[in-house]
Design a protein that fits this description.
single chain, 678 residues, alpha+beta, five-stranded antiparallel beta sheet, 11 helices, EC 3.4.21.26, Pept_S9_AS
Length: 678
Amino acid sequence: MYPAARRDEIVENLHGTPVPDPYRWLEGPDEPEVKGWLLAQEELFRAQAEPVRFKERIAELLRSGSVGVPVWRGERHFFSRRTPDQEHAVYYVVEADGTERALIDPMAIDPSGLTTLDAVQPDKEGRLLAYQISVGGDEESSLYVMDVSTGARVEGPIDRCRYSPVAWLPGGEAFYYVRRLPSTEVPEGESQFHRRVYLHRVGTSTEDDVMIFGDGLKMTNYYGVSVSRDGRWLQVSASEGTAPRNDLWLADLSSSPAERPELTVVQEGVDAQTGLVFGRDGRIYVHTDRDAPRARVCVADPADPSVWTDLIPEDPEAVLTDFAILDDLDRPVMLVGWTRHALSEISLHSLETGERIGAVPTPGLGTIGGISERPEGGYEAWFGYTDNTTPPTIQRYDARTGETSLWAASPGAVEVPDVRTEQVTYLSKDGTQVRMLVISPVSGEGPRPTILNGYGGFGISMTPGYSASILAWVEAGGVYAIAGLRGGGEEGEDWHRAGMLGNKQNVFDDFHAAAEHLIATGVTTSAQLAISGGSNGGLLVGAALTQRPELYAAVACSAPLLDMVRYELFGLGATWNVEYGSAEDPSEFPWLWAYSPYHQVREGVSYPATLFTVFQSDTRVHPLHAWKMCAALQHATAGSAPILLRNEGEVGHGARSVSRTVDLAADQLTFLAKHTGL
């Protein structure tokens, strides 16, 4: 039934453990044998595929469009919006008189839909706009600068700017940014790393850019950079890969030149994440999880930035996510955003004392994104809001009246189905309480076909949000559950660390326990239970299907990490050993070996129906993980449930066009529906 895949006798001895790797040959995407195997898998997937369900309904629900939080520069503001028929969101400027103009339309740049807008940053006056675009899903951002008034491009492309922040100096004449060294200057295989911070003067050659930071530091470092509104203070941060900690420096640009800033240490060698906001009152506001796993806000004097005083102390239950300062008031206030067990709220505090004086009204129990203020101060704030049945909206808060009002809605009118959402609490294997959102039809009882989704990594929280595929599944009679596993950020940094490195098995235990809870409470049965996850969530479901194959009927595993012995050798894997550990380290190898899904596949086991979905241009997680795991499962399974691979070209790990999103979601839901009986 399955395409032939040779098994090689490759066994490496790692720290005294024999590690077989029979499908290593699948790591070479350009090899004719690999291409032939992928073609055969494509034919198998198409032959097995049912008539695609859900596609029209998902497309319809995505016609809500979307809208982004505004960024203010004087009387101008900038924002993104996607209308019902657009493949990508468009970035706009709105003038003081309300005139709106499109600045960047990815479809106008590239009608194929393969170009994505990765990042934008207006200068401090709103006259110039730095923006980054990439093509075909490779996320290899090129940086450009546009004149906002004319739309003319004045700079770029500047290449090697993936994940680069842009920090403008006042006047728009120069900015700090992060760029990788040329591949000719780094060892082979390391071209994705070796970032540096540069100062670039607009209109000059990048050859003249001055490197101001990063030389001699770790290859896998990521850097952050920002400049205060008045141009006096420069902040530079460095973190090793995706580590939940950073070093932080501050420079006074009034006493040292922009090309040679004298950086003083704010935090170095400390196991915490810290960032600075430069207040208009001359104080520094410090957002940190140092000695506060759920985070706090402190204040400091720029003259001595290492001495902090608590302003908003840590909350025992809620995680402090962001804040904004409104100071055009008799009594200036700070708006503080929190997530309490993954649900968002905003509290109101005295800016002077930190005392809580009220709350900001929000539309419901959902997710608030990015509280934004005017850089010069004011009495208004804007924030995004969404929940499981509400497409993205922008809310405006007026501190003079204490009222929140709808400022902008997603532009498309859609008929959203009625669903019931509840948050349940269950116990994991070790007795830890874990929370899970369960979205189900409003009428009727279970058990029903159910999809269980999770992530459990990198401190990322699973919060409520509008999802066309979830709504389409529930409308068809299914249940969709999202578990807030350890490894995520739902309960703060301690929760993250309880699921990383040597604690990774806790994540899988939390997931199995979620499945068992759904079965025990009559929501579903093993024969009706599917699991889905992408990226680190793909690792999650890969581990789940190998550890408890009898518990699950079907699996959708997208862009996954699955060979945890060799993951550091591909894509951005070397930046994640601070999350997972390294197979090169004899003390860390056993963690990875214990759960590495590819190495846990056993012959003669009846594995659940499994669909791997991967993206040929994925430069974060190489599709080889799914290719090797697919071959291993097809060889090993004793059951009749299919093991299939959907290999998609010209897209990557991140943003994609709406039509590509619809096709992928419909294929996944169709597969899961067939194998859970929906």
